[in-house]
Amino acid sequence: MDLSIEHPRFYFKLFYLLAFLFIYIMVIYKSLKRGYHLRSVLLMLTTISLFTVLGSRLFTIPVEDWLTVIQSEATVFNNRSSVGGLLFGLLGLVISQRVFGFNRPMLDLYAWIGPIALGIIKLGCLFNGCCYGVPTQAVWGVRYPVGTHAHFNQWSASVVQSDMAMSLPVHPVQLYETLALFLIGYLVYKTHKHWHKNFSAILSALVLFFVMRFGIEFLRDAEGSQFNTVYIMGLRGYQWSMLCYGVLAAIALVIYDRYLKIELVKGRQNSPFLHADFLYILLISLCLYTFRNVFSTYESMVVWIKFFPAIGLSAYYLYSDKRLKPYRWLTTMVLLTPFYVLAQTIPNEKPVVKQYHRIDVGGSFGDFSNEVRYNPQSGECGTTYDTEYFKQTYSIVGGGYSFITEKEKSKLTYGANVSAGSIKSSNLTLHVDESDFVFAVNPYFKVDSKWLGGGVGFQLGNLRMNKDEVIDESNIKDAQKTYVFLPEFYARVGPRKYVDLDYNYGFLYPSAFPTLYSRASIGTGFGISDDYSLRYGYISNLDTGYISAEALITKQFGINIMYIFEEDYYLPVDEKTSGKLVFSLNYRFGHKTRN
């Protein structure tokens, strides 16, 4: 069978990501069923992924070269070891279990999904042509094209001629290993309940894995291995090590499960330890920064897709748990640390002039309260009013177009947005509801340099604003006035790429109205670019704070999200407002560059 693939590295990366995605989905699914705190689960997944990737790389690099790889990117070391990934990943699991206290079901889960994930990665090795087998005349033998490890090593050893397009047929040993790993996962899944101790299922999986690797090496070409080819009594040193590991793991399993009276890995009720989580995030960030030169892009991705949601949930608990209120500034800085680390791994190449078009779609949802005073009357201490209280729920959606020109030291943006939605006004005094349709057209213009920025625009349509009203009329019909025209402006100081302060009156997509029209914030782009930002701010008309994030996911697609915390507004009735959400997606196209 000829295996001719145009981009073998693509398939290796694909199956590599699929393996970690499989673990991700299974762990999240089981965690939701058992009621685990997702913040802790995601931090555990981040740790295991980090250690697995790190172990797979470091296991193939001589110890004396570790410092060289850490200090500067060394492209000569590009091999990976499933054994190293398994052992280091197991270490990450043990560390996570000790910190977060996951009990036996989580350990048993990893015992059987770990081998299956490794089997998925081995399918990538099959298409990549690495870890290939010895030559065979079997009908299922695989021939690899020019450019693969198998063809190159056979050509170097003069086994094939330089003009031969395909290698000699070899055992698809990677496929054998995939099937064996799937079988190991199945056996561990079927037998994990028969063991007595928490860690026994994992030890049983290790025994089967090492025995499998010992046997599979008889069919693997020694030239395709990144380990030494020293032979001892007819077996390679690597095979002897796998056999020894298997025997030691089997002895440890029997002694631990049958004879030891203690639990080496103790489970406890999973509960959130907020202070530990923030310290844990800091340590993971330090580890990612230290080994940033070791990881490839797709290896970093399998870590960050777990780390990002963990940071987001930690931020949510930070601002919703009253115990952490006195320490929010300190813990917020801790949550910013991972983004600084990420910034150091992203190349920052920017043309002198870049122009592109941008389309935005998004929405904002929430509610707010206000009061209206009307029917002025003469009193002993001056004019008095009747008062009615309102709670209003709104949903706004919109779309926009803009044209952006980025130069080396400035960025010019002009465009227009349209938004529409509904506001339901509930008179809490009279228990009367009324819904209104609101809409707006919003042309705008803004310019940003490195240290300063500004912009102007206006909203035209049927608009509302959340503010307390005093109406010199004897009757009241609704909670707010309707506005046809509202100006907006924006000002900024400081390099947005690093840290800046801004003030916005309006200037929010899809619409700053009816609630978010006057706000100030501080933010950072983590040293990456203006397309990335994390901000914390204050909304003066709501007397509450908010947190927002912006990121460019690919060259074309970006995302913005803002969460506004519940405002502390007094109402004489038992009605409270909730937090508010603003989000949008953007698509960029028609890129042009010139010097």
UniProtKB/TrEMBL annotation:
GO terms (BP aspect): lipoprotein biosynthetic process
Pfam hit, one: LGT
UniProt GO MF annotations: phosphatidylglycerol-prolipoprotein diacylglyceryl transferase activity
Signal peptide interval: none
Keywords linked to the UniProt accession: Cell membrane, Membrane, Transferase, Transmembrane, Transmembrane helix
Keyword Signal set for record: no
Family: Belongs to the Lgt family.
Name under which the protein is recorded: Prolipoprotein diacylglyceryl transferase
Organism field: Aestuariibaculum suncheonense
Lineage, uppermost ranks: Bacteria, Pseudomonadati, Bacteroidota, Flavobacteriia, Flavobacteriales
